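Human: Cast an eye over this sequence-structure pair and say how the chain folds.
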Amino acid sequence: MVVQGDLHQGDVLEVERIKYPVLIVSKNFFNSSGEIIGCPIYEDSTESPLHIAIKTNEVQGYVQCEKLALLDLSVRGYRKIDRLFINDIMNITDAVQGLFDYI
């Protein structure tokens, strides 16, 4: 795999040594460092407030919002395989933010 271009919130990546596609949930200014915060996309799951169903041309499954991971893409190969629509990005980032709300 080869590093390809800028990293944007909502991009779906295939990342070296990671079994599932990864959705970038961190903001673009953060991603410019070469690190991202991402969530895996599993094909099989049950929809819930933290398992959000998505469907693109290349990926169909459930974003696992509680499985946030910091990934240093400067030391891993990756490639962009797709991108989510803004409405999906907003739903998913709202769910992620809800993990850290007070009480």
About this structure: Strands lie at 11-15, 22-24, 35-42, 51-55, 60-64, 69-72, 78-83. DSSP finds two helices and seven strands in the chain.
